[in-house]
TrEMBL record:
Keyword annotations from UniProtKB, A to Z: ATP-binding, Kinase, Nucleotide-binding, Phosphoprotein, Transferase
Pfam families: HATPase_c, HisKA, PAS_9
Protein name: histidine kinase
Catalytic activity, as annotated: ATP + protein L-histidine = ADP + protein N-phospho-L-histidine
Enzyme Commission number(s) of this protein: 2.7.13.3
EC top class, as a word: transferase
Start and end residues of each Histidine kinase domain: 398-616
Family annotation (CDD domains): HisKA (cd00082), PAS (cd00130)
PANTHER family per UniProt: HISKA, TWO-COMPONENT HISTIDINE PROTEIN KINASE
GO molecular function, one term: histidine phosphotransfer kinase activity
Organism: Stygiobacter electus
TM stretches of this protein: none
């Protein structure tokens, strides 16, 4: 605060150019504004807290509107200073923060300014809360505490200690500590306490209050506190309630032998409960159970199981206890799924305690997660084996058909050639040779595709990427398919971007992708159109190949991306092919950092979208 006054005095006595002033350290936020509420000076604390600088208006502080009106009203008043609490909100923070603002009127060279010194109410409240918390903890909290002066007289006692000793404050305050505790200590214990007081050494004693029902056990600890080395120390006496701990120890010792035999012979999760009325109370558990449920057995002794285990498990245990107590059965089992996805086979057994009416229930939880996973893996492996067998059968059927068909054609053409040579009809030989080339080309293309799929699947394929304009490739490939399009009497629509759609891909592999997709579009379209287009969108080249053909069932799309599959398998399928073209196009697109997307609807056509990054 003194730093703030010094800084303010310097500002008043100097000129109105504030840029040369040196800021004192550890200041609260401070700003000087003119009568128009514009900032003419602000320190670093103000800038960092409110994000405003010289020349900006204080209305931008995002405060409650009354603050600005108050400053304006202060300008027109005759007050020298004024203080106000304000609230501020921040763009990057959803919380609203409170501040205390003091506004002082100053004149520099006959010009009026306002000095705004700002203090965070949060810091002030923290300090006040801390003081109040300490006071409440000592005076009204549940912590038994006494303070003794260096004459061994009690100068402070908490309310809880009054309750522990069952004495009013007037019967404790300003009395000697040995006098106050004389009703609870024997002569030897009192002598021990006096020796500790006289020698300024710590003292500790477990005190039992038998007059209370039930009896309570409190541990008293006395420690000297030195303010300096030249004066006698004061003393602090505090107490810990060990009643629950001692009662637990007594109960555990009583049943330790019996429970130890049970616990030591069970490796699974183990919980022991006692039925009292309508509730099952915690009696004991092994370490595996406590670890799995994050429990401390010392803190849950005699508590209802509903308070510390999941509701679905406690519900099953209560149902099992009901069955065991109402029906003549020796045990009950159920399956419990833990929150960490582990599954347990739970077995509940009743164990009556001899010589009393008490009955304990032992719950064992055997982890069967791995067993279930193993069964699921066997089931998945079985289904996978069935799928592989089907794929093998489909593959053999497709390959036998695709390989046998061209070679049957070659044999047939060979016989026709022999007959033509013998009959001297040599005019059709050229046409037959062209047909043979086409058939053999189809067989060669099949073998090439099989090898390429094998290389892709094994990761042995090599890419030689170059920058190329995909429009040139698409245009050239479209010309190669003109004859096939004319034969089927379908419309061919080519819409390529006027911009250079340059992408970085393997030239040969990209041609393979577009060629396979065009071949499929034409093959599966008997009427309507085939569309090919390209465009640039957000630094990506988008290539669309669309047809109005037979389309694909939505459920079959993912399967058709696997090799050697067609929507209709077997010898009766209406279209030729080994089912490799779509697979190769899909996998090559992914290998060249492209995106392959299929949108199709049965009997309405198919739309394939290829997306590649635009080359820089």
């Amino acid at each position: 605060m003194n730093n703030l006054k010094n800084q303010r005095a310097v500002l008043v006595e100097t000129e109105t150019d504030f840029s040369n002033y040196i800021e004192l350290p550890n200041n609260n936020p401070l700003a000087i504004v003119d009568v128009e509420l514009k900032i003419v000076y602000c320190n670093e604390a103000f800038k960092s807290n409110f994000g405003l600088g010289i020349g900006e208006e204080i209305s931008k502080m995002n405060s409650n509107p009354e603050f600005v009106y108050l400053v304006k009203g202060f300008n027109e008043s005759h007050y020298k200073n004024i203080s106000v609490d304000i609230t501020l909100s921040f763009e990057n923070d959803t919380l609203v923060k409170n501040y205390f603002v003091r506004i002082e009127r100053v004149f520099i060279k006959l010009q009026q300014y306002f000095v705004l010194s700002i203090e965070s109410l949060e810091q002030r409240n923290k300090l006040e809360n801390k003081i109040n918390s300490i006071h409440n903890a000592l005076d009204q909290g549940n912590f038994p505490l006494m303070i003794l002066d260096n004459d061994k007289k009690i100068t402070y006692v908490s309310k809880t200690f009054e309750i522990v000793l069952n004495r009013d404050l007037e019967n404790i305050f300003n009395k000697q500590i040995d006098e106050v505790l004389s009703d609870y200590l024997n002569l030897a214990e009192l002598d021990d306490l006096k020796n500790s007081l006289n020698n300024y050494t710590p003292w500790k004693k477990l005190v039992c209050f038998y007059k209370k029902a039930p009896a309570e056990y409190w541990e008293f600890k006395l420690n000297p506190v030195y303010e300096n080395e030249f004066e006698k120390p004061n003393f602090i006496l505090f107490a810990n309630n060990l009643t629950e701990h001692i009662n637990q120890t007594i109960a555990i010792e009583r049943s330790e032998k019996k429970q130890k035999l049970i616990i030591d012979n069970i490796s699974d999760l183990l919980l022991i409960v006692e039925k009292v009325g309508n509730f099952a109370l915690f009696e004991n558990a092994n370490d595996n159970f406590c670890k799995s449920f994050g429990l401390d057995k010392n803190k849950i002794y005699s508590l209802k199981i509903d308070d510390f285990i999941p509701q679905n498990l406690s519900k099953e245990i209560y149902e099992a206890i009901f069955i065991l107590t109402t029906k003549n059965v020796s045990f009950h089992e159920f399956i419990y799924k833990h929150f960490d996805n582990h599954e347990f086979n739970c077995k509940v057994t009743s164990v009556p305690e001899s010589g009393s009416n008490l009955t304990y229930f032992i719950i064992t939880l055997k982890d069967i997660t791995e067993e279930i996973r193993y069964r699921e893996q066997l089931k998945k492996a079985y289904h996978k084996e069935m799928q592989l067998n089907k794929m093998k059968s489909d593959f053999l059927a497709n390959m036998s058909h695709e390989i046998r068909t061209p070679f049957n054609a070659v044999v047939g053409f060979s016989e026709i050639i022999d007959e033509s040579i013998e009959s001297g009809e040599t005019e059709i030989l050229r046409e037959l040779m062209n047909s043979m080339k086409e058939v053999l080309g189809r067989a060669l293309n099949l073998f090439t595709n099989i090898i390429e799929v094998s290389q892709i699947e094994s990761g042995e394929i090599e890419l030689e990427k170059v920058d190329l304009n995909c429009n040139h490739i698409i245009r050239n490939l479209s010309k190669k398919f003109e004859e096939d399009i004319q034969k089927k009497d379908i419309d061919f629509i080519l819409e390529l971007s006027n911009d250079d759609c340059v992408i970085e891909v393997d030239w040969v592999k990209f041609e393979k992708i577009v060629s396979s997709l065009l071949d499929n579009a034409i093959k599966y379209t008997d009427k309507g159109y085939v569309y090919v287009g390209s465009r640039i969108e957000n630094k990506f080249v988008v290539i669309v190949i669309e047809d109005s053909g037979v389309g694909i069932e939505q459920s079959q799309i993912e399967r058709l991306l696997k090799p050697f599959t067609q929507e209709i398998e077997g010898y009766t399928r209406p279209f030729e092919g080994a089912g490799l073209g779509l697979t190769i196009a899909y996998k090559l697109t992914q290998l060249m950092d492209g995106k392959f997307e299929i949108k199709s609807e049965k009997n309405k056509g198919t739309r394939i979208i290829l997306t590649f990054p635009l080359s820089s």
